[in-house]
Amino acid sequence: MRLGRQLRKWSVGQRVAMIVALLLLPMAVLSAVSMVVLNEQEMAFRESVEESVHTLLPLTTLEHYLQRALVDELLAESNQSAPDFSGLTDSIDKSFSGLRVGADKQDLPLAVMDDAQHAWMQARPAVRRLVELVRTTRGSLPQDGLAHTREELERAIHDVSTARQHLSFVIEARYTRAAAQRHRQLWWLVWGWVLTLTAAIALAGAFLYSLLRPIRQLVGASREIGAGRTGVRVPVEGQDELAALATCFNEMAENWEVTRQSLVTEAAEDPLTGALNRRAVLALLETELESCLRTQQPLSLFVLDLDHFKAINDRFGHTAGDRALRWVVEKVRGLLREGDHLGRYGGDEFIALLPRTGKKQAEVIARRIVQAVHDVAAREPSYPGVSAGVAAAPEDGRDATTLIEVADAALYTHKARHRAR
After folding, report:
1. Contact 284, 353 (CB under 8 A)
2. Burial level of 197, CB count in 10 A (0-12/13-18/19+)?
3. Full domain range(s) for residue 338
4. Which residues make Cβ contacts (< 8 Å) with residue 52, sequence separation at least 6?
5. Residues 6+ apart with CB under 8 A from 392
6. Are 287 and 377 in contact (CB under 8 A)?
7. Where do the HAMP domain residues begin and end (predicted)?
């Protein structure tokens, strides 16, 4: 949530740019790093191959020449050119020196290296003597010298072969370690890709969430308003375009609620008296009657009719008649209980709904209202008295029309008795 609030301080365009950067920049960096690592590995492999060739080739060549010299009995043909034993010896010495220089890198098995160099040092004197022998010999050797030379050759071949084998182990061990190192580098590279892309995707997801969350809130709020709910608002977070849109949406929702309430009031309220109008009070009567029958609770209503209202209009004018209507409504509302409803049925006739109220209790309330209005009307000629007729469900009827007819009949009976008196 805190990260989302921080991100909402950025504009939508900035966050989109950050999403693109988070997805492309790590890939570009990792691609460059991968190219560097792979190029280094290729160069290291090439150097390893060249080192193997330059290190083992002189020993192998020397061993070959010694084998051939043994077979040919030290250049039986005087006209044949002698191999360059001296150059091969120097090349082998340089190879061992070069390997020794790299020994401090801890990538050489020193024991095997020592064995290889020891074998070469044993073979080297014999090879040196063979070099001198080749230089001085221009024909066949005496029989006793030939036997001695043959022994020298065999020892030299054995020592050179031993040195070559040990040196092969050295090169193989060095190559194995280099291959393991390259393998680790590749694994680190793969894990670098995985972790970097995971982090980039997670951050990009956070940026996308900061964009999509307010949009989903706006969509949800719009659907709730479309369903008719009131009081719907979206939280305003951050300083971006979506926050401005949320502010405008809340203002629009508030204006819509005010307009809707005005329309509802105009549709359900009598504009003169403020009581429910005919349509609203009849709809409320149907709803309360249905609830009464379903829950088996009593419901009562009484119809009020103003006495001599036409005479007040004729004598004091229609303004006084309007004032008399408003006064009666205010007086009756003050005597009704919380939860009771009053509506103007038409002209100077009103209906009061009393949910969860029996007929006897409703008659008591009606008489109290009639008496309170009569007491004031007796002192003020411009205020009328009222007559009331009570009906209750379910004993007097189970539908709105029947109940109103029963209440009207009771009302006119009350008026007839009042005129008779």
Report:
1. yes
2. middle
3. 278-420
4. 171, 175
5. 298, 299, 300, 301, 357, 358, 359, 362, 403
6. no
7. 209-261
Q: Is 108 helix (H, G, I), strand (E, B) or coil?
A: coil
DSSP state of 105: G
Is residue 225 very low, low, confident or very high in pLDDT (cuts 50, 70, 90)? Answer: confident
What CATH number did the domain enclosing 334 receive?
3.30.70.270
Which three-class secondary structure state does DSSP give residue 137?
coil
Last residue of one domain, picked from the residues 153, 178, 206: 206
Cα–Cα distance measured from residue 154 to residue 140, given in angstroms and rounded to the nearest whole number: 19
Question: Directed axis angle between helix 278-295 and helix 241-268, to 10°?
Answer: 90
Name the β-bridge partners of 276.
269, 343
Give the predicted TM-score (pTM) of the model: 0.47
> How do 299-306 and 386-393 pair as beta strands?
antiparallel
* Residue recorded with tokens 């629009």: 252
- The two tokens of residue 349 are 């006739």
pLDDT tens for 171-190 read 777 677 777 777 887 888 78
Q: Are 57 and 191 found together in one domain? A: yes
CA angle 251, 256, 258 (to 5 degrees): 100
Instruction: Name 27's Cβ contacts closer than 8 Å, sequence gap at least 6.
Output: 197
307 vs 324: CA distance, rounded Å: 11
Distance between CA atoms of 16 and 306, rounded to whole angstroms?
A: 71
Q: Model confidence over 308-362: pLDDT tens digits?
A: 888 888 889 989 999 999 999 999 999 999 999 999 998 899 999 999 999 999 9
The verdict on 191 and 299 lying in the same domain is no
Q: Are residues 308 and 406 both part of a single domain?
A: yes
- Cα 193 to Cα 60: distance, rounded to the nearest angstrom: 45
Q: Structural domain tally of the chain?
A: 2
Domain shared by 82 and 190, yes or no: yes
